[in-house]
Design brief:
By secondary structure, the chain is of the alpha/beta class. The protein has 20 helices and 26 strands. It starts with a strand and ends in a 15-residue tail after the last strand. Bound molecules: 5'-O-[(L-methionyl)-sulphamoyl]adenosine.
């Protein structure tokens, strides 16, 4: 019996209901869990709530509530949201549950007995919203380096975890296990963080009446991160059901946002596991952050979008079912942002994808083939000639490709592969002109064309099951696929799924096209397709001529229009240790605000020039795109400003 595929999300702080940003972690985990079930794997998918944080007591007090009542209410709200999003977690752990608290206490005792925890005195800074301790040197202008808020000075006698003893072992483990920390850029950050030298961590706080008490010292509670990380093992039977624990641990995938990857999940957590002599998870994966229309999601800005509300609004507008609209949100989140990178959510792009990928490509394939089957053969598969135009190969190829990408958590690419197959089938139908075949009475050929296209629709339905479960089901119902719930990934290439005589159902559009947005939100009119200008070929140059160019990454700090010059923007850019002013001729293509915060590619050693009275010290590089200039940016937005390009 193969090992259970075990995956986890972080456990959420119970302050607010999830928005599109933190729901992303859970939705990607859900897609992964469903994908593995579809492959026939035994899966255990865990999520939950982190309830012992210092800020909980304060938030409860503010509402005049008892902290336990407060967390009970919010944890229930979280579970309701996940249920309404059809998240298929197998368990939900709450850190106020005895099954968790008992394990935390037992682990604390054990590590104390073996000398990994000791008592000492601590002076430093604590950021309450982030629940993180910082040394003087780590603060940014005296504030929290993560969220920029005020920190509190703390001087306490505390218990420490000997993190410093694990640096070398961690580095060796990371080096020996290339899959352990992903993506690569984040792994490098962890390695630098560890190489700077690890300090022991204070793992207790003064007891303010909330949290897990330190065994034998009721004046203290256990630091919330030490407590919270343990959920990943307390929930599956560590120290309570060793048999179950051994079937499930180590985790195959632990997924979390980049804010809690380096310090907590990739350093502290594996060191705790090493101290407990437990194997480490196979992969810790850091995903990027969503912004909304270029802005950070924040309560104060009031810009948080709830995925459930988004789906409901869309359903009300389009007439599609709520479940299918929810699928559209899941599809967008998985398709639009490469796992590991940051991404921006905009309703406009979401609506575009809904219309183009879902209504046009997928919807059309199903609709037109079923309509023609109805029109020409009364919905019953005729005797047909297998033509296929290579579509059978395309299905097999896509199955392998999408599997490879899903196995390596490259969901964007997996979906691209599936849509590429759908595109090939739509093109095939166009090329074969079945309506002409019908006119000419070539029924066997016509049947062959429709059957081939329907096979692609069937294959797509299975492949998108993890991403869009309700849609997949709906497609399967229209295609009259028997026992669809029990089909596995391996069934994608089943031979001859639509045998002669099979009765298929009437088509019903799953994704009605959305109308253009109201005027005030309207998108700019798509510009006429223009071909990019092709400059004349330039002569070859030796490498040392290229090497004279100082190409560097820079971050745009400020941007504004140059008065009296409608093509020019004045940018203040940072090269890490130096700020400069440059002028760029891109004002027609970019709003100044859209560039602030962006990383660009700079030719840094171009002679200074004065353009329209403004001095420019370097040149921003842009490509000649179809609709004008396209600013070049590094594929990994975390590339530091100042980095050299070789
Ligand atoms: N309680 C801790 C985790 C403890 S795990 C042992 C915590 N909770 S959280 O509620 O603040 O965050 C939960 C998850 O949401 C994290 O993975 C975080 O990175 C993610 N996100 C929060 N805002 C986000 C975006 N705007 N975009 C993407 N993910 C975001 O941290």
């Amino acid at each position: 019996m193969s090992k259970t595929y075990y995956l986890t999300t972080p456990i959420y702080y119970v302050n607010d209901v999830p928005h599109i940003g933190n729901a992303y972690t859970t939705i990607i985990a859900d897609i992964t869990a469903r994908y593995h079930r579809l492959k026939g794997d035994k899966v255990h998918f865990l999520t939950g709530t982190d309830e012992n944080a210092t800020k909980v007591a304060a938030a409860a007090a503010e509402k005049g509530m008892d902290p336990q009542d407060f967390v009970d209410k919010l944890a229930a709200a979280f579970q309701d949201v996940w249920a309404s999003l059809d998240i298929t977690n197998d368990d939900f752990i709450r850190t106020t549950q005895p099954r968790h608290k008992d394990v935390v206490t037992a682990i604390f005792k054990r590590l104390m007995d073996q000398g990994d925890i000791y008592k000492g005195s601590y002076t430093g800074h604590y950021c309450v919203p982030c629940e993180t301790f910082y040394a003087d040197s780590e603060l940014a202008d005296g504030k929290c380096p993560e969220c920029g808020r005020e920190v509190t000075e703390v001087e306490e006698e505390n218990y420490y975890f000997k993190l410093s003893a694990y640096g070398d072992r961690l580095l060796k483990y990371i080096e020996d296990n290339p899959e352990f920390l992903q993506p690569e850029a984040k792994k490098n950050e962890v390695v630098s963080f560890i190489k700077q030298g690890l300090r022991d961590v204070s793992i207790t706080r003064a007891n303010n009446g909330w949290g897990i008490e330190v065994p034998g010292d009721p004046s203290k509670v256990i630091y919330v991160w030490f407590d919270a990380l343990i959920n990943y093992i307390s929930a599956i039977g560590y120290l309570s059901d060793e048999k179950r624990f051994n079937e499930i641990w180590p985790a195959d995938l632990q997924l979390m946002g980049k804010d809690i990857f380096v310090r907590f999940h990739s350093t502290f957590w594996p060191a705790m596991l090493m101290a407990l002599d437990l194997p480490l998870p196979k992969t810790l994966f850091s995903h990027g952050f969503w912004t909304i229309n270029g802005e950070k999601i924040s309560k104060s800005k009031g810009n948080a979008i709830s995925p459930a509300k988004l789906a409901e609004d869309l359903a009300a507008e389009s007439g599609a079912s709520r479940e299918v609209c929810l699928d559209a949100v899941r599809y967008f989140l998985a398709r639009e942002m490469t796992l590991g990178m940051d991404g921006d959510f905009s309703i406009k792009i979401f609506r575009n994808r809904f219309n183009s990928d879902l209504a046009n490509d997928l919807g059309n394939l199903l609709n037109r083939t079923l309509s023609m089957l109805g029109k020409y053969f009364e919905g019953v598969m005729p005797d047909y000639e297998t033509f296929g135009g290579g579509l059978a190969d395309k299905i097999a190829e896509t199955k392998d490709l999408a599997e490879k990408y899903c196995d390596s958590y490259e969901f964007t690419k997996a979906l691209e592969a599936v849509w590429n197959m759908i595109g090939a089938a739509n093109k095939y139908v166009n090329d074969m002109q079945p309506w002409v075949l019908a006119k000419e009475g070539k029924n066997a050929e016509l049947g062959g064309v429709l059957e081939s296209a329907l096979e692609v629709a069937r294959a797509a339905a299975i492949m998108i099951k993890p991403f869009m479960p309700a849609t997949a089901k709906e497609i399967a119902a229209q295609l009259a696929i028997a026992d669809f719930d029990n089909l596995l990934w391996s069934n994608i290439t089943d031979a001859d799924p639509f045998a002669k005589g099979t009765k298929l159902n009437e088509p019903a559009p799953i994704f009605p096209r959305l109308p253009k947005q109201k005027k005030e939100e309207a998108e700019p009119k798509p510009k006429k397709e223009k071909k990019a200008k092709v400059p004349e070929k330039k002569p070859l140059i030796p490498y040392d001529v290229f090497a004279q160019l100082e190409l560097r990454i820079a971050e745009v700090k400020q941007a504004e229009k140059v008065e009296g010059a409608d093509k020019l923007l004045r940018l203040i850019i940072s090269l890490g240790d130096e700020e400069r002013q440059i002028v760029a001729g891109i004002a027609k293509y970019y709003e100044p605000e859209a560039l602030v915060g962006k990383k660009i590619v700079l030719l840094a050693n171009l002679e200074p020039a004065v353009i329209r009275g403004v001095e420019s010290n370097g040149m921003l590089l842009a490509a000649d795109g179809v609709n004008g200039a396209v600013v070049l940016t590094p594929a990994d937005p975390d590339t530091p400003a100042g980095a050299y390009i070789k």
